[in-house]
UniProtKB/TrEMBL annotation:
Family the entry assigns: Belongs to the FldB/FldC dehydratase alpha/beta subunit family.
Domain of life: Bacteria
Name under which the protein is recorded: (R)-2-hydroxyacyl-CoA dehydratase
Species in which this protein is naturally found: Geobacter sulfurreducens (strain ATCC 51573 / DSM 12127 / PCA)
Record-linked InterPro entries: FldB/FldC_alpha/beta, YjiM-like
NCBIfam families attached to this UniProt entry: double_cubane
PANTHER family attached to this UniProt entry: 2-HYDROXYGLUTARYL-COA DEHYDRATASE, D-COMPONENT-RELATED, DEHYDRATASE SUBUNIT MJ0007-RELATED
Length: 431
């Protein structure tokens, strides 16, 4: 597809039906079209199979939303989420659909700042602003939002969000002791009851088992893709990988898995034929830290425009979402919920204390990816990731790993300053 052929499609009738502010939203597809052409379609030598994922962006505000509305009409609940700590399998087991809600855009922040304090993280403000301004079709389509208590900004915002859309909050423990797991298991059970109530369907062992298999297959496909991109030279850009990981949160899981595996087949062929996105000598950078919700492409675009390639994301838009699978060998609902709890408790979000497993995990992924430097990405006011960067820096100093900590938001204001810092970092790696 040439950049000129690409267009994010509009569907004002559908948006009207969802109660959106159609007039305000109508400029969005054009803005996204231009951004996507400039940031994504201008890349050279992309894998042909990226066409599917480009198509998902073209259908972001139309086709995929229509699919959700059709599912709702058929009685299937749609649940919006902001965190990878949601047991998606439970939503799927009652016939529901789980969609990650975007909180990655500057455009909705002024809406939120009319209500929320200014000095909280941009992800929370962006997400809340999308709902207040009625400028996100996904937010308008969801029957229920799943919120969690991973940080103060989120847990207090959910109280206000609940006035706009039903919001179910789960208490995420902040330690990983046996009693914390017991608490979270109770929360998972409550969430299961909530989903049964919303859907009018029982979460059976058969249903949960099938959902676990679907999600394991999806996570395995993403693991396969991430392993392939670790090859030197990398057969796919970090920007394309980021895009796929973002699409993972709103696409149909089975269709997504099939397309990721087809892309992997192509990457196998590219590696065998020596086809890469950049020469083997291109500096390789790994990114860790806070997740980057769609359409937050700022950091990857800066790094790759500066002549490096991003080879791994230790992030919830990255390995934290797919590094762990769930044991499939259980028979009862109670066993399944317990094993799901085990799986989710392995996510090393910075809300946990202590959280040294994450530091170890970053090192393992750094080594596996063949990276030559680590950039830790932190959203402004995200205290847990920001403070955890101290331990990451210490680990990098100990291991002789070049390290750069970046704290930013979604505005373009600091782009020049970031560009200078990133270019200097890449020069340092080049030696
Ligand atoms: S970083 Fe923590 S709070 Fe954010 S999505 Fe990941 S697990 Fe959830
Ligand atoms: S990025 Fe940090 S501050 Fe923002 S919502 Fe996530 S955990 Fe909270």
């Amino acid at each position: 597809m040439t950049p000129e052929q690409f267009e994010v499609k509009a569907n004002p009738a559908l948006w009207e039906r969802l109660g959106m502010n159609v007039e305000r939203f109508s400029g969005m597809p054009k803005m996204l079209t231009e951004a996507f052409r400039g940031i994504y379609l201008s890349q050279k030598n992309r894998p042909a199979r990226m066409e599917y994922f480009d198509g998902m962006i073209a259908e972001l505000h139309s086709g995929r939303v229509e699919e959700l509305v059709t599912a709702k009409d058929a009685g299937r609940p749609v649940v919006g989420t902001f965190c990878v700590y949601v047991p998606e399998e439970v939503i799927m087991a009652v016939g529901g659909i789980c969609v990650g809600l975007c909180g990655g855009s500057q455009g909705s922040i002024p809406d939120a700042e009319k209500v929320l304090p200014r000095n909280i993280c941009p992800m929370v403000k962006s997400a809340f602003g999308f709902k207040l301004g009625k400028i996100c079709p996904y937010f308008q389509a969801v029957d229920l939002v799943y919120g969690e208590t991973t940080c103060d900004a989120k847990k207090k915002t959910w109280e206000l969000l609940d006035r706009e859309v039903p919001t179910h909050v789960m208490e995420i423990p902040q330690m990983k002791r046996a009693r914390d797991k017991a608490l979270w298991l109770e929360e998972v059970k409550d969430f299961t009851s909530k989903m049964e109530e919303v859907s009018g369907r029982k979460a059976t062992a058969e249903g949960i088992g099938a959902a676990i298999r679907v999600m394991n297959a999806k996570r395995l496909a993403l693991q396969r893709l991430n392993d392939l991109r670790h090859h030197t030279p990398s057969p796919i850009s970090g920007k394309d990988m980021l895009l796929i990981q973002q699409i993972a949160f709103y696409d149909d899981p089975a269709r997504f898995t099939a397309n990721v595996n087809e892309l992997c087949d192509e990457l196998d062929e590219r590696i065998a034929a020596g086809v890469a996105v950049a020469p083997a000598a291109t500096p390789r950078v790994m990114v860790s830290g806070t997740p980057m919700a769609l359409p937050n492409w700022k950091l990857h675009h800066l790094i790759e425009s500066a002549g490096a390639v991003v080879v791994n994301e230790e992030s919830c838009i990255g390995t934290r979402y797919y590094k762990d699978l769930t044991d499939e060998s259980t028979a009862t609902v109670d066993e399944q919920l317990s094993l799901l709890t085990d799986r989710y408790m392995k996510i090393d979000c910075s809300c946990f204390t202590p959280n040294d497993d994450r530091i170890e995990q970053v090192l393992v992924e750094y080594r596996a990816s063949g990276a030559q430097g680590l950039i830790d990405y932190c959203l402004q006011f995200c205290h847990t990731y920001n403070i955890e960067a101290v331990k990451l820096r210490e680990m990098c100093e100990r291991e002789g790993i070049p390290f750069l900590a970046i704290e930013t938001d979604y505005s373009p204001e600091d782009v020049g300053q970031l560009q200078t810092r990133i270019e200097a970092f890449i020069e340092q790696i080049r030696g």
